[in-house]
Description:
With about 325 residues, the protein is mainly beta. It has helices at about 20-25, 60-75, 75-80, 105-115, 145-150, 215-220; strands at about 10-20, 35-40, 45, 45-50, 85-95, 100, 120-125, 130-135, 160-165, 170, 180, 185-190, 195-200, 245, 250-260, 260-265, 275-285, 290-295, 300, 305-320.
Amino acid sequence: MKLYPLKFKPILKERLWGGTKLKDVLNKPIKSDITGESWELSGVKGDISQVSNGDLEGTSLQDLLDDQAEALMGKSVVDRFGKEFPILIKFIDAKQDLSIQLHPNDELAKKRHNSFGKTEMWYIMDADPGAKLIVGFNRDVEKAEYVKSIEEGTLTELMNYEEVDEGDTFFINTGKIHAIGAGVLLAEIQQTSDITYRVFDFNRRDKDGNLRELHTSLAIDAIDYEKKDDFKVDYPKQQDMVNPMVDCPYFKTSFMELSKPMKQDLSDRDSFTIYMCVGGSATIHNDWGSVPITKGETVLVAASSTYVDIDTQQTKLLEVTI
């Protein structure tokens, strides 16, 4: 099987807080005014991505993994994760504030949900003036104090708010309480997990008038109550270079702003490579073919590729490997 650069059909998710930027800015084929997420590359059960280009069009990511896991992901990745794709790639549009939430670590997620935990990072693609994120507490908090704030509806008084601009990048480790604020469009890279503990939802009601479920008791032992300034990613932005951003056990991400073509030798990279286009356009070539990519699109390059050529005059890419 010739594993040319693969694109996948976006899996679109309506959300109470979603809007229209996925269509207006990223040209996603959405029909509603509350589409909050576009899952670009997913191995989550029930939401498995399907190839959208070339001879493999219509083939599921899981079928590819069942047939050629090592060729697609790399031996070291298969040794760690088996035939489960370990990364979930999304674009998120928050027209309203998302709920304040957090994610459990691997140990807790395995014990409670037989799942991976959820470490993630965000790259801000677009932000309305004054748009903010919630990331962590604004001071060290005692568990009893947190519980009291939940009971009294004063949790927001303990939150740390970060105003954001295009290009800002945040690393959200497990246990860190957080929320994406209204007016933010971002790219999200995360472990393959859909485990979220929602702790405050601004008392919003869905279209049927119901409050959304909260996970108050589950969250208490999963939260990191210490104030930490470890979330804002300070990364180089040299043009026509691969600029490291995040290097954690679950993924490595780099930023590339290219004004001319670039060729990369992948012969020693025992991992797949994902390119998320966050600006401009390019054509991605490997040993077996090529595919165009433009802002809001994602391409998967198989681990068996010996090289990748990025043909462009102007593009911004996030490169993701393990």
